[in-house]
Model the fold of this input.
Amino acid sequence: MRSHRRRKQTWTAKMAEEQQESSQGEVEGVNCLAYDEAIIAQQDRIQQEIANSNPLVSDRQELTVLQREYAEEDSVYQLKIKDLHKKYSYIRKTRPDGNCFYRAFGFAHLESLLDDSKELQRFKAVAAKSKLDLVNEGFTEFTIEDFHNTFMDLIELCEKQPSLQELLNSFNDQNVSDYVVVYLRLLTSGYLQREHVFFQHFIEGGRSVKEFCQQEVEPMSKESDHIHIIALAQALNVSILVEYMDRGEGGTVNHHVFPEGGDPRIFLLYRPGHYDILYK
Amino acid sequence: MENKYNLKSPAVKRLMKEAAELREPTEHYHAQPLEENLFEWHFSVRGPPDSDFDGGVYHGRIVLPPEYPMKPPSIILLTPNGRFEVGKKICLSISGHHPETWQPSWSIRTALIAIIGFMPTKGEGAIGSLDYTPEERKALAKKSQDFFCESCSCCMRSALLALTPNSNPSAEDHKAKELAQQINFKAESSLSRQSSESSGAASEPSTHTLGDSSTASGQEDADRPQAEQAEPPSVSRAEQPPAAPTERPLSPRQRRAQRRGEQPPREPAANRAAFVPANRQHQDESHAGSAALILVLTLALAVLIFRRIYLAQEYKFDYDF
Done:
């Protein structure tokens, strides 16, 4: 899990550099004590830029768009994209805001339910019951019920066989979309805490599972790692396949199914620091 | 109040619910929105037992951002208490040891319990924190009962339910302490407050925590525990509150320090050492200090970028071989 985290850093370091370069000019005139404000304002601006150029969930695009994202002579990535083409034809991108795993999962799964009413009914029952499980674990009912209601509303929307565009619109409404992300984070946190004896072995830095959930799972914008994906996949009993594409040698994309041995319904593409949705 | 607000707004929906939930005062806390503004609340909290604040009841304001509960509330104490400066925002820390951020499933009640739990902790010179002597705090606790708030016309003597022999303060107290350990509060600096006031109310939301919804900070937080291990503990300690700003400029180096594990450790030691005094210098909060810091960081950044290019080329060369 540690090496997995390191891979993310290429991307974050790049971002930090950009941020620093632009902050130097502006920050100079500000008193040290106002730095906090300046940093926050800066971050807000960067956030806004990301938001302006990336919808929360994009339209489905040909997988060939990936080729153009990397230089032609970038043989490591170009080879891997070719490898990806053998299995997938389309990609749907999500906004890189730290919530991308939850948003990608949420959208991909609900989209798949549009033409699978059996799974839809099973999923609806699991989702409906999940609030009670969280309350029994000590989550405050009145604070989590708005998130749960929004999540259920979307599942019920899927029952009515809406157009794909309708579902996409809901996921691009910041209020709705973020509430779904919050609820998926809560489900992840709830499952990790329920199975804390098992998950404790995978947590670094001497933290308890509860602390980990409060620091790395429940706050918005905290990125997801293997442990989050396993927990959410198991909490909802939905199998997820993640294709890992990074700078590693080999020319092929490795994948991992969560939980192991499952029959995946959802396909995600991981590139350092980010998840998008893949389609066959 | 119901007609005034858009009931479809998630914040309004949630705050209405919280107002109903907190309507009746408990023995330890009470909070309600002002009549004319659902986004501003007044609260009263009882000072924790077994502390210098025992017997005190403290009053304050809570300001909710329009994005609530996705963004955290700001808390301002109005009663002199000897722990927090009066009239200054206490925000979730952006520079604490534990990079805690607000959780949407927390509520105003969570914030109140956290405040209670946080009172007996040490201010440790953080901006906006006060380290009054126990005697002064005890005197203020006694005096706090006489406080009367004109805007919500409530008197501290009758703001909360009276403690009874049956009440179990230790359970509440335990919960409060636990929360205080999770959450890191920090008072907003006076200067930044002035600047935010002068730039108008529009800048108010920006006083909330850094961790909120920004990707970069989210990632940084996630990375931080590792990065801190790579540093001498005294430095990260010294960086505490006033050095919060250095957090951002430092991060590229921290990331490189982390990545050094993968790459040959070729960074000259002198380069690294140069950063430490720069940090300390920054603590002087002098303008010259920050200018020097920026200069050093720019140079260091240039060195690191060149090094990276160099390494990348060398890598390719090896590869072609």
